[in-house]
Amino acid sequence: MQLPVPAAAACPAVNPADCGDFNAAQQFSQGGVLDGVPAGGSYDNVLPSLNIRAHLSPEVQLRFAASRAMVRPDFNQMQPYTQLAINFEADGYTLNPVSPFTGTAGNPDLRPIIADQFDLSLEWYFAPQGSLTGVVFYKKVKDYIYSGVSQQTFTNNGVTYTFDVTQQQNGEEGTVQGFEIAYQQFFDFLPGWLNGFGLQANYTYIDSDGGANTAVNIFDPVQVGGANLALPLEACRRPATTSPPCTSARASRPAWPGTGASSTC
After folding, report:
1. Is residue 263 a part of any domain in this protein?
2. Is the Cβ–Cβ distance between 82 and 35 less than 8 Å?
3. The TonB-dependent receptor-like beta-barrel domain covers which part of the protein (predicted)?
4. Total structural domains in the chain?
5. Residue whose C-alpha is closest to residue 85's, from 168, 23, 166
6. Does a structural domain hold residue 43?
7. Which end of the chain has the lower number of beta carbons within 10 A, N or C?
8. Rounded to an integer, what distance in angstroms lies between the CA atom of residue 249 and that of residue 243?
9. In which domain, by residue range, is 160 found?
10. Which of 231, 225, 261 is nearest to 129 (CA)?
11. What single-letter DSSP state applies at residue 3?
């Protein structure tokens, strides 16, 4: 744990009566290293998956996929550290009236993100090298990770402060749903050097909710008043992103019927 260190070695105030906050902060920071709190955990998860394909005709395929996916927290998010700061005004001895005691910390108690996801796709291979695909998907996300602020109290050398500590936290539940339309074709019917040109295009719409708003400044009534609003999950905005578990995880499918090539969506 890294303790705050006052910018000045001695109180810069002319009147010693104005040095109360500075002296208390110096006493807190010079009390030695605070011992950390042991943390750790374990978890077991079963991650089943199901993929079904139905040939409605030689050119049309229907696919259904259901699975449970898990995304573990990054190591830097779980790093067991706490860094505290005592913030003064420009004079060096008056506490900041808005955010006097702040800090950042890792969270070794973070749980992995779990997503139950379902995909249904209809694929039309209208040419040997052309396809049109439509997909709808739904995901229920549990324990999503977001950046939050919590109040934590520390006592050192006889001085007690409550700090607003920013760290990664687990949320509750959220949902991600939407659809995708994809088209691809090689124009091998074109003459001469134009033969072989192709086009690949797709459109994805994502609607997500369940994220918790975070009041960066708990002393700002506007932020605090909106802290309970339901917002889109982090990294799950419109249009689609590539951050798991927001992307669709469908099974591999043949690129073109009758060929050995494959592509993974």
Report:
1. no
2. no
3. 36-211
4. 1
5. 166
6. no
7. N
8. 12
9. 16-36+48-257
10. 261
11. P
DSSP codes, 6-44: -SSSS---SSGGGGHHHHHHHHHHTS-PPPPPP------
Distance of alpha carbon 242 from alpha carbon 165, whole angstroms = 29
> pTM to 2 decimals?
0.65
**Percentage with pLDDT > 90 across the chain:** 32
52 burial class (0-12, 13-18, 19+ CB within 10 angstroms)?
A: exposed
Q: Are 156 and 31 in contact (CB under 8 A)?
A: yes
What are 170-201's pLDDT values in tens digits? 888 888 899 999 999 988 777 888 777 889 99
| Cα distances (angstroms) measured from residue 121 to each of 52, 135, 154, 188, 193 | 11, 4, 54, 26, 35
Is 174 a member of any domain? yes
Say how far apart CA 227 and CA 224 lie, in whole Å. 5
Kindly state the tokens that stand for 163.
């700090």
Task: Give the rounded distance of the alpha carbon of 159 from its chain centre.
Answer: 36
Please write the tens of the pLDDT for every residue from 103-132.
999 999 899 999 999 999 999 999 888 999
One-letter amino acid for residue 149 of the chain: V
Q: Quick one: tokens of 169?
A: 């936290």
